[in-house]
Amino acid sequence: MAKSFKRAGNAAPQFLEDDPSTGYLPGRRWPVVRYGLISLAISAVLVFAIELIVRGDVAGTISFFLQPFKPGWTTIVVFALVLIGLDAVLGRSHQSLMIVAPLTLSLAFVGHQKSHYLGDPLYPTDFLYARQIFALLPLLVRERPMTALAMVAGIVAGLSLLVYGWRLWRRKVPALSHKGRLARLTLAVPLLAFFVSIMDYATFSWTRDRLQIIPIMWDQKENYASNGFALAFALNVPMAHVSAPPGYSDKAIAAIDRTNVTASVPTEKPDIIVVMSESFWDSTKLPGVTITPDPIPNVRALRSGSMFSPEFGGMTANIEFEALTGFSNAFLPAGSIPYQQYVRTPTPSMATFLKSEGYRARAIHPGTNWFWNRGAVYADFGFNDFKSEETLPPMEKRGPLASDAAMTDEIIREADASDDPVFFFAVSLQNHGPYEPNRYSNPTHSVQAPISQWARDSLISYAEGSADADRGLERLIEWAKTRERPTIVAFFGDHLPPLGPVYVETGFLKDNVAPRKEPTPEAALEHHATPLIIWSNRSGPVENLGTVSPAFLPYHILTAAGITHPYYTGFLGEMRERYRVVDRNLLLTPTGEATSDWARQKEIDPAIRDFRLLQYDMMFGKRLAAPDFFPETVDKVVSHTS
Description:
The chain is of the alpha/beta class and 642 residues long.
């Protein structure tokens, strides 16, 4: 009788007590502990795999976990909580691994590839321009078709295996009880919510500090190396919000020195044509390399100086941002892209000012309108119109992309057809990477260098594109010489090209990309300087500019045009007297004195402080400085949705 009663009593909770897969067993602690330990073990293996993929170094990965004060162990606990919480949502023990593992391992792989080719880790904001990456896939397929095919096959196989495993798991593993799911959520949700609350790098957290999670936002490579991929990625999520600089107030803006410079243009307004040439650089600077004939003879003859790019091998939009606004990426979160994140309302630029003075402000790019969000950004910058692939007439291609010659023809045609003075900002496309061998049929250049045949052929492809850009400049100059209207032509490369293995084989770099934080100012100049030409059909090339940040280009361009402005020639002119390079990691004076890691110092030059305050005020703040520094924007700012 007692035996029968016992069986009857056991019948109801049999699912909970006899099935360890539920993980919630009233009265039995060991299955609960076992579930927790298994979750921790799975998390440890997953986090180790993520770090191994991202770092590409077994010894470095092991070292990361062997150091007790590194946040790797915190990451394991966080991943375990995520897995436990998702198990509750999905209703099966450990099934969350089928979502978390593919997602995080894929992110780790993408992060490794980005670091390998562009030198920067993966940021949350990178997904804002994922469409750009897909748009460039045809070029990548052309360069490495077998690799692309293998990746597609791997993705298809992986997804098929995942679907099969998911369905098998749902059939084989019993569903969790309501109590088991509630217990998991009760544990995971509050702890994860607390963890999220301490991940804003702009605020101090006692807990985060004790866990040795130290936001190193000024050096993202070190940030990812020290905190690990997952935590560093999470620390970068809040970068979409830019905190006010210390001391920002009405009084601080009022205290910034006002110059006596006012807005003025010559009676005969000059046309201003600015060409930002994709990846344009002097490839003859590669050690041990001889390129015949010289691919850039016109640039060499007319060169005014160098432009110090804040980027390497990519991120063109960040150079555009500085060159058009006179603001600096140095004052924005590392890894951010203003075009994607911050330009969401009318923002002062050279286009805004020149349009207010009767210019027709026009932008041209033979790529798509949405690339880098240019369509919306150019509207916010005040351009009258933007001609892109969608609105330009059919353009002749050179290789796989629209040619520099066709873009030059369009600039000349539109300038000649305009009765109003024009401000052109043109971004070329032809010489965009990758530089696959045999990109152009019947190349006119040859390369002599002790490097592999692949690297030699790749360099020939790049040299051909550079020569076309050089000829485009020559054509603009020859055309401008015949014009009655004063004409200013500015030409510069946005960054060094992504030549990858060519740099390593020639000894120019140790890795495929330059380090974000260079060991010396000399190395920074070598790896970030591109040719700069500012030329007038009345006075010829501007000379001896040295190396300047793109934020100072408005000053030099407008000065050459005989135009003044309280910010672009006034404030930036005075700033240029103090610094010629303002970069996140480097300040460089006109005499060559360098200050590295300036942002980490307790005392910052008041001039740099004012530069930062002024930029924040106009981009994110109250625009208190507008009447004195940007009078053309007063009473003209309206809400704009990009």
